Each structure stands twice: as C-alpha cells, then as structure tokens.
Amino acid sequence: MATQKAKKTYYERNREKILLKMKQRYQQDPDYREKTKQLARKRYHEDEAYRKATIERAKKRYREMKAKKPSTGGNRKA
User: What global pTM score does this model have?
Assistant: First the structure.
C-alpha cells in the first residue's frame, strides 16, 4: 500500500518567502503598516477567539522571557 502525500497549499509551500516579503513591506511602507495595525486592532476588539489567542501568545512569550532572564533575587535587602 502506498501512502498518499497530502497536498500542500501555496502558502505552506512558500511560507518563508511570503513572510519575508510581508515583513519587508511592513518595514518600508508606512501606509501598509498603519492599515495592518488598524486591521489588527479592529479584529482584536471584535473577535473574542482572536483576542483570547492573542493574550495566550503574549503570556507564553512573557513566560519564555522570564525563564531566560537570570533571577536577581527580587527586592530583598541583604
């Protein structure tokens, strides 16, 4: 029995190139940057699932950042 390979979408095949192109456009085009920010803000306020996912991603980033940062011992006085 031969296993069939699942077909990848255009985005899946070219993800790296697409993301690089979007990043460059975001950095170089102020109009695109503002429109993207407005769209993200609007979606954040209107879509509860997107908002929850955004918050969870931020929490995960924060936890990873805290794990990498060496402990300074807090505000204790010696």
Answer: 0.54
Comparing CA positions, the residue from 1, 22, 2 lying closest to residue 11 is: 22
* DSSP, res 14: T
Confidence of residue 31 (pLDDT cuts 50, 70, 90): very high
> What are the extents of the domains in the chain?
15-68
Q: Tens digit of pLDDT for each residue in 64-74?
A: 999 998 766 66
CB count in 10 Å sphere of residue 36: 14
Q: How far apart are CA 2 and CA 19, in angstroms?
A: 34
Please state, in angstroms and rounded to a whole number, the distance separating the CA atoms of residues 65 and 60: 9
